[in-house]
Amino acid sequence: MNGSGGAAARPRAGDELLRGGALERVAFDPVGGSVELVVSGRRCTFEAVRATTLLAPWDGTPGTVEWLRVVAADEASLALELRVQWLEVPRVYRMVCGAVRFG
Asked: According to the model, what pLDDT value does residue 56 have?
């Protein structure tokens, strides 16, 4: 999240991590406890997922990510909200995870 090449700062409550973009992929790894999204070619991996309202498997329905933001954060957990505009309705999903990584 910083462009200096060093370690990225841990997100804080109120940070917006993504804004806008086509949702291209949603993949769940229940054994590894991770969820991966690809939004307009940008990979976002949620690690050590403890809870989520995202459902698997994703059926490929077209959607646009409106935003991904941090609702709460401490040293061990991030509480996130993801708003997706589907063809007919928007939906907000929630997730609690240990970390989020972009690559």
From this structure: 76
DSSP 64-95: EEEEEEEEEE-SS-EEEEEEEEESS-EEEEEE
Q: Tell me the C-alpha distance between 68 and 17, whole Å.
A: 5
pLDDT in tens, 50-70: 999 998 778 888 999 999 999
Contacts of residue 32, Cβ cutoff 8 Å, sequence gap at least 6: none
**Residue 47 and residue 29: Cα distance in Å, rounded?**
10
CA distance 41 to 37: 9
**How much of the chain, in percent, has pLDDT values that exceed 90?**
80
Dihedral of alpha carbons 2, 69, 55, 100, sign: positive
